[in-house]
Design a protein that fits this description.
Blueprint (H helix, E strand, L loop, with lengths): L8 H9 L5 H19 L2 E4 L3 H13 L11 E5 L26 H8 L3 E6 L33 H8 L5 E5 L6 H7 L2 E4 L20 E5 L2 H11 L17 H11 L6 E5 L9 H16 L3 E5 L7 H16 L20 H12 L2 H14 L5 H24 L2 E5 L15 H5 L6 H6 L3 E8 L6 E7 L5 H19 L9 H4 L2
Parallel strand pairs: 2-3, 2-4, 7-8, 7-9
Antiparallel strand pairs: 1-3, 4-6, 5-6, 5-10, 9-11, 10-11
Helix pairs in contact: 2-3, 7-8, 8-16, 10-12, 10-13
Length: 504
């Protein structure tokens, strides 16, 4: 039997439905893979003890003739920012170490109802604050392509698990690029849906106006299949959209089959591909544009002048919302509690707990956000940032009048060395320069592989963006581009990867 961990979720689905393989076989293969390589990669913080039992239940249901969804029996990894009633949910922080929620996040509940098999919880930057998964309180995750390099952040655990064949599917969350940027540096596919298109209920909040849960996979079709499961209206999320969503999987299949982009206007964002971008990233991006043009796409340059201020606005809005959201971790209601020597007031206990439980990056952003919201500074900082956000949204509106989708590199460089940017927070923040604007505007974005950089042989990623509610367009164009690039390479990019590092 072929190595089950090398099959895509779509391929596993076909074999499971045809009863050529069992969910127990598939799940055991991935658990064995985790046991073999995760000591080097550290993608997982917790591996489920119930995975094989869940898989066996799926096999029984299928054997009894129960009608199951297309991904029933397929294993999935879950970013540790999402609540799970049967596994710890720490958000990568000591302040929640060992905490098991009394409920599932809506997206996790939907996974269970669709009979996917949760493998465990993946590592992440603490409370999703970071671009490298080096800010996890439980140690960094390593990139499967090169174990000395970062897997991106904050969702590096999910991306590394998928890239290392530890899981065919994963869930991530994207506040400023934390799905798309890890996808870029690990050679995987990641999608940030339209804000409100996927429920945030049960996702431990970082910045509520920016956070969005989405799929992390190895192919565009797999991302579409997973998006079909987790998307849709949720009355528990006040920002959830009531829109009826089309089948993203159907759009992806059509795009991959037709491979034609005739009449599609592709806007190249002038401000998202310039100084500071690695030469190999720029070269692969130029080649991708050639592929798009050869398939009939009309390439147009668009300008978004206010994108220049996106990072500055983002790093005022995010810390401000984070300082409010993280106030709930007060040592009283749940999580860690540290009692000062000799006792003290509730305020003393809270201060001692937050000092011990929060890491340096979290403290930095809480302080910055509290300052931005303080009396006398709110209008000057937070209020001004929100005005810039409106200008960025207007830039997108103008750009989409000229283009059906926008395109840019998904990250300015390939994966950098572990520790390389830890002492320079501003340099770390710049890793999200191309992804942040989509979060500020609430529009959907997709990151997918666009080839290896010749100078280091590491993955590069391309980003597609579409207007709000036009997620289906991303899957159609993204699947076509993926197929065209693979035709050009003669293989899938990810097929070259993990054994290069992990086997050593």
């Amino acid at each position: 039997m072929a190595d089950l961990t090398r099959l895509t979720a779509a391929e596993l689905s076909q074999k499971l439905q045809a009863r050529e393989i069992s969910s127990v076989d598939v799940t055991r293969a991935h658990l064995d893979r985790i046991a073999a390589v995760d000591g080097d990669i550290h993608a997982f913080l917790h591996v489920s003890s119930a995975a094989l039992a869940t898989a066996a239940d799926v096999d029984t249901r299928r054997g009894d003739g129960e009608k199951l969804g297309p991904l029933a029996g397929v294993p999935i990894a879950i970013k540790d920012v999402l609540c799970t009633f049967d596994m710890p949910s720490t958000a990568g922080s000591k302040i929640l170490e060992g905490w098991v929620p009394p409920y599932d996040a809506t997206v996790v509940r939907k996974l269970r109802e669709a009979h996917l098999v949760p493998l465990g919880k993946t590592n992440m930057d603490e409370f999703a604050m970071g671009s490298s998964t080096e800010h996890s309180a439980f140690g960094p995750t390593h990139n499967p392509w090169d174990l000395d390099r970062i897997p991106g952040g904050s969702g590096g655990g999910s991306a590394a698990a998928v890239a290392a064949y530890e899981a065919p599917l994963a869930l991530g969350s994207d506040t400023g690029g934390s799905i798309r940027q890890p996808a870029a540096v690990t050679g995987s596919v990641g999608v940030k849906p339209t804000y409100g298109g996927v429920s945030r209920y049960g996702a431990i909040a970082l910045a509520s106006s920016l956070d969005q849960v989405g799929p992390v996979t190895r192919t565009v079709l797999d991302a579409a299949l997973l998006h079909d499961v987790i998307g849709g209206y949720d009355p528990r999320d006040s920002t959830s959209l009531k829109d009826p969503w089309p089948s993203f999987a159907d759009a992806a299949r059509t795009g991959a089959r037709d491979r034609s982009l005739k009449g599609v206007r592709v806007g190249v964002v002038k401000q998202l591909n310039g100084d500071g971008f690695q030469v190999g990233v720029r070269d692969r991006f130029a080649e991708s544009l050639e592929v798009l043009a050869a398939a009939g796409a009309e390439i147009v340059e668009v300008s978004a002048p206010n994108f220049e201020y996106a990072i500055a606005a983002y790093y005022l809005i995010l810390p401000a919302e984070a300082s409010s959201n993280l106030a709930k971790f007060d040592s009283v209601r749940f999580g860690l509690r540290v009692n000062p020597k000799g006792g003290g007031t509730v305020e003393d206990v809270m201060a001692a707990t937050r000092e011990a439980g929060f890491g340096p990056e979290v403290k930095r952003r809480i302080i910055l956000g509290t300052y931005a919201l303080s009396a006398g500074y709110y209008d000057a900082y937070y209020g001004s940032a929100q005005k810039v956000r409106t200008l960025i949204q207007r830039d997108f509106d103008a750009a989409f009048e000229r283009a059906d989708v926008l395109i840019s590199p998904a990250a300015p460089t390939t994966a950098f060395k572990l520790g390389e940017k830890l002492e320079d927070p501003l340099a770390m923040y710049l890793n999200d320069v191309t992804t942040i604007p989509a979060n500020l505007a609430g529009i959907p974005g997709m990151g997918l592989p666009m080839g290896l950089a010749p100078e280091d042989g590491l993955p590069t990623g391309i980003q597609l963006m579409a207007p709000a509610r036009a997620d289906v367009r991303l899957y159609s164009v993204g699947a076509a581009l993926e197929a065209l690039l693979e035709d050009r390479w003669g293989h899938t990019l990810i097929s070259q990867a993990p054994e290069l590092a992990v086997a050593r």
